[in-house]
Structures are given as C-alpha cells and as structure tokens.
Design brief:
Elements: H1 2-11, E1 17-20, H2 23-35, E2 41-44, H3 50-64, E3 69-72, E4 78-79, H4 87-115, E5 118-123, H5 136-156, E6 161-166, E7 170-172, E8 180-181, H6 185-197, E9 202-204, H7 205-216
Parallel strand pairs: 1-2, 3-5, 4-8, 5-6, 7-9
Helix pairs in contact: 1-7, 3-4, 4-5
Amino acid sequence: LGLVLTRRLALLGAKVAILARDEEGLARAREDLRSRRFDVLAVRCDVRDRSQVQAAIRTVTQALGPIDVLINNAGVLQVGPMETMIQEDYEDAMRTHFWGPLHATLAVLPEMRKRGRGRIVNISSLGGKIASPHMLPYVASKFALVGLSEGMRTELLQEGITVTTVCPGLMRTGSPYNAFFKGRHRAEANWFILADSLPVLSMSVESAASMILFATR
C-alpha cells in the first residue's frame, strides 16, 4: 500500500520520502520508483524507535523542505489464537501501530503548527473498529491508533492541521506472506490467505490507494 501511494503521489508531482526499517525492502521500493522515473528520498528508519524517527524527519526536512502530508502506514501482523500470543507480540504491535505514528506525528507537528497547516493520515484498519479473533495484538493496537487519530483530529483542526483516519478492510497487499502465524500454522494461514484473495471480502491495493488519496486531498 505504501508503495502504491508513493507512486500516485509522485505522479501528482509531490516530493516524496519513503521510510522503512528493512534495508532490502527499502532498496526494492526505491528501484521500483526510479524505474518509473520518480525521484524519491529513501530513508532507513524503524518507526518504533523515537530517536530514529526524529532523525529521519530532520533528514527529510533538510532535503525536501517542510512536510505537508505525513502518512503513517507501518504495520505488523500476528495471526493465531490468544493462547499462542505472548506479551512481546502485543508490545511489538503497539510499538508499530500506536507509538510509531505518534513518534512521527510529534516530530512533524512543530513545523506544521508554525505554518498553520498540514495533513496527517493514519492508516489503521477495520480491525481497529471491529475486533477479530486470532489477531488480538493487531486489533488492540489498531483500536489504540483509531482512538489517538480521532482524538488528534478534534484537537488539531483548530490549528489548521487535519488528521485523517483510514480504516480499510482486507486488502490484497501480500499480507499473508508477511504475517506471522502462530498455533496451527497451516490452518491459520489457509483461512487468512483465502479471505485476503477473495474480491468479495477484500479490495485491491489500487482501489484503497485511490480512496485514501481522495480523502487526503
């Protein structure tokens, strides 16, 4: 989803920076964008680490100027029954889905406040509105992000800063290949892959990106 959003934004003429903690994935994304003649700034950053986020935002601002739009899209997914989840699963989900967006938001807010404008887009999930079994760390952290995002929208709107909360359902983004399955691995993976692949139950990443950018604009 982040990659498709970046392509669309670059096509619209935006100056775009992409952040990711995985060096290899970041390099693949950069090459994909360059092959389409899009010049983007790629910065390695683990959003779970506040100091890395602050450093990354400084790098982006120095290279491209003040940030007009921040899109928080980092995600992890653990699938399995509650009995297989350990505390670290919940901590990882919260650090990625709640603390990550908060770190990035706090890093861009001073400049946005100074200019009296800006847009923050938080990619949560339908799982942040409706709890699903076998995904409790994911669901709990996405609920936290929805609460944070909707609360920030109310407070920041009076300062000219708009917060958009995005809660898509299943998207065909390849998440079954990046999810961490626990318990009865094959059974957990099979139902997830089936739901993720059915057009009736899931939406294409291109459709999701179009709606997100429509809401953002």
